[in-house]
């Protein structure tokens, strides 16, 4: 475990000795909207899909920038780039979210990408919950990372 010291206490990892390298990470999440909650993307929308996705995109990017404020013991990083993209699967009534983050630092940006994907998914839930409380957020995961001592994953 990376945030446990020799005495077993929670601690922030000391990354001061690590080389500053370009770090990138991509995370994903799925929002299972269900046929009722898909209303924002139908011919008679409650909300325009651009509105929902635009708000979720901004929320995800802002969350990536504020990850250290949200996740205890996470290093504050100067993010050089963050993005959130969406792919609607109308047949499956689901929305796939892909979030990426990058920076030059001595530690990775996996948590920033994961936070962006999760907050974007929660924002979609919040904006569509009036149509269905049965929306499911799932498959939050790291898709890939690069940079640093561990290299590519």
Q: What do you see in this structure?
A:
By secondary structure, this protein is an alpha+beta fold. The protein has one domain: 2-Layer Sandwich (Alpha-Beta Plaits). Helices cover 29% and strands 29% of the residues. The chain has four helices and four strands, in the order βαααββαβ. A four-stranded antiparallel beta sheet has the order 2-3-1-4, covered by helices on one side. α2 (49-65) runs antiparallel to α4. The protein is elongated. It starts with 20 loop residues before the first strand and ends in a 7-residue tail after the last strand.
CATH topology: Alpha-Beta Plaits
Largest sheet, described in full? Answer: 4 strands, antiparallel
Share of helix, binned: 25-40%
**Mean pLDDT score, rounded?**
85
Give the CATH superfamily. Answer: Molybdopterin cofactor biosynthesis C (MoaC) domain
Q: List the uncertain runs.
A: none
Rg (CA only): 17 Å
**Intertermini distance:** 18 Å
* Shape category: elongated
Total E-strand runs? 4
Strands of the widest sheet, in order across it, are 2-3-1-4
How many domains? The number is 1
| Quaternary structure classification | single chain
CATH class: Alpha Beta
Per DSSP, the total helix count is 4
Architecture, according to CATH? Answer: 2-Layer Sandwich
- Helix and strand element order: EHHHEEHE
- Give the helix/strand class: alpha+beta
Strand content of the residues, in percent?
25-35%
Which terms summarize this structure?
elongated; Alpha-Beta Plaits; alpha+beta; 4-stranded antiparallel beta sheet; 153 residues
List the helices and strands and how they pair.
Layout: E1 21-32, H1 34-37, H2 49-65, H3 67-70, E2 81-89, E3 94-105, H4 110-128, E4 136-146
Antiparallel strand pairs: 1-3, 1-4, 2-3
Helix pairs in contact: 2-4
